[in-house]
Amino acid sequence: MKKISVILILIFIFSCEKEQHDLTVIGTVKGLKKGIIYLKKTDDTLLVTVDSLVINGNDNFELHSKIESPEMFFLYLDNDDQRISFFADKGITEINTSLKKFTSDVTIKGSKQQVVLEEYLLMMSKFNNKNLDLFKENFDARKANDSVLAKTSIDERNSLLKRKYLYTVNFAINNKDSEVSPYVALTEIYNANIKLLDTINNSLTPKVKASKYGKEFQIFIDNIKAEENK
Q1: Residues 6 or more apart in contact with residue 97 via CB below 8 angstroms
Q2: How do beta strands 23-30 and 91-98 pair?
Q3: DSSP conformation class of 13
Q4: Is the pLDDT score of 230 beyond 80?
Q5: 2-110, what's its fold?
Q6: Could you tell me the pTM of the whole model?
Q7: DSSP for residue 99
Q8: What's the CA angle centered on 185, arms 127 and 37, to 5 degrees?
Q9: Is 176 exposed, middle or buried (0-12, 13-18, 19+ CB in 10 A)?
Q10: What average pLDDT is seen over the chain?
Q11: pLDDT tens per residue across span 153-183
């Protein structure tokens, strides 16, 4: 009985001492035999490593980080320029990709914020693809000395840019209950008219306002207003 009691006590102590993680990132990099996977995030505009793992024969990984509110994290392989960006919240995020197509083969399962972000990125990719088509059209028109078509393609590109801008504004307002809203406002339309930024900020729910990006967005707007009032 004494031996059993000692074992139970040791198990209890071990379980108590086992570190609890806010965020756990698990996944696989198919085809990876050796390398280092880094989990990073921004801290005061600086990109910092919060965890890393040496891969040697096993392409599965598990990384951890503290997290107070939902925010963007980045997965790097061997500190290469290629990175996988994802919006994480407390709990488990699963990322699966391949060594050959590290950024394009990726699937991410985790936070509800990631789902919202992917919706936004999908529309942005459509805008960007259309912009590339118009750029090529303009290039071909100028090459053929077709001034009418060249001007039309430029006008269409300018119109597309405005639609892309307005889509982001509406997206941020329509997703006022998601931390993705202040994030896209800060990263995609930071140079927008202060009235538009104020409209987005005033629409945010109290929970989002209290988040990392909600606070940063408020500070950003306050700084703009302070500069304008000088």
Answers
A1: 27, 28, 29, 30, 84, 103, 105, 106, 107
A2: parallel
A3: H
A4: no
A5: Immunoglobulin-like (2.60.40)
A6: 0.85
A7: S
A8: 80
A9: middle
A10: 90
A11: 999 999 999 999 999 999 999 999 999 999 9
Domain ranges of the chain: 2-110, 114-228
Instruction: For residue 171, give the 3-state DSSP assignment.
Output: helix
Distance between CA atoms of residues 61 and 54, nearest Å: 9
The confidence score (pLDDT) of residue 16 equals 43
Strand partners, 35: 55
Give the distance from CA 8 to its chain's centroid.
44
Cα gap 52→76, rounded to integer Å: 9
The pLDDT, as a whole number, for residue 146 is 87
- Kindly state the average pLDDT of the residues 32-38: 93
Give the C-alpha separation, 198 to 164, whole Å: 19
Quote the pLDDT of residue 100.
92
With pLDDT > 70 as the criterion, what percentage of the chain qualifies?
A: 92
Q: Quick one: which H or E segment has residue 50?
A: strand 46-56
Query: Rg of the chain over CA atoms, in angstroms?
Result: 23
In this structure, which long-range contacts are made by residues 111-114, counting pairs with CB atoms below 8 Å and at least 24 apart in sequence? Answer: 111/70, 111/87, 112/178, 113/70, 113/87, 113/88, 113/89, 113/178, 113/179, 113/180, 114/86, 114/87, 114/88
